[in-house]
Amino acid sequence: MAADAITLVGFLDEETVPGDLHGSTARFRLTVSPTDEHTDELILPCTIADPQMAHTVLHELVPGDQLHVTGYLHLPRTPEDPMRLVVTELTLMQPAPRLSDQATAIIERYGPYVCWFDADTPDVEVFTEAGDWVGTAPEPNGIGQLLAAFEHRQAAGGE
Questions:
Q1: CB atoms < 10 A from the CB of 36, how many?
Q2: Most exposed of 14, 68, 80, 129 (fewest Cβ within 10 Å)?
Q3: How many structural domains comprise the chain?
Q4: Cβ count near 59 (within 10 Å)
Q5: What is the C-alpha separation between 29 and 14, in angstroms, rounded?
Q6: Cα 30–34–35 angle (5° rounding)?
Q7: pLDDT tens per residue, range 78-105
Q8: Are residues 112 and 150 in the same domain?
């Protein structure tokens, strides 16, 4: 008796990997959550044997993409045999949000402080790790002076 195909919707968990040296097969992990309960979440290993579909998976999908997959569940027959979904159909339902190739701002941590560097301005905005405003340094080299002045005000009991 042949097994019935199953259809799942989930998110690509991490980068896809080739299943062989030639990239004619692919492997990936699909995070499936049928309910909003974290305990119902499942990470399912998947394989693709179709070379054209494998190429698409390896070169066009990124972590976070929402996928609709159909395939056959391969259950282990020995302890060394992994469970996996052998995917026969795959559709990209929604791509993951893409970040721009060039970041325009970064956040760095300096001890209990968080600094916001924006590529569009030399100013550096500084906050405490609790989110309280410390001030703006006119350039990255001014962060030390800004932090010293802030700590001096805090020690004196000022705002």
A1: 7
A2: 80
A3: 2
A4: 10
A5: 7
A6: 130
A7: 999 889 999 999 999 998 866 555 567 7
A8: yes
Q: What value, to the nearest 5°, has the Cα angle with vertex 58 and ends 61 and 105?
A: 50
Residue type, 90: L
- How many angstroms separate the CA atoms of 37 and 66, rounded? 18
pLDDT in tens, 7-51: 999 999 889 999 998 889 999 999 998 876 777 888 999 999 999
| Secondary-structure breakdown of the chain: helix, strand, coil percentages, each rounded to the nearest 5 | 20, 40, 40
Residues 74 and 36 reside in one and the same domain:
yes
Alpha carbon distance 102, 105 (integer Å)? 9
The model's pTM: 0.60
18 lies in some domain: yes
Is 99 domain-assigned? no
Same domain (yes/no): 51, 113:
no
What is the rounded distance in angstroms from the CA atom of residue 150 to the CA atom of residue 75?
A: 61
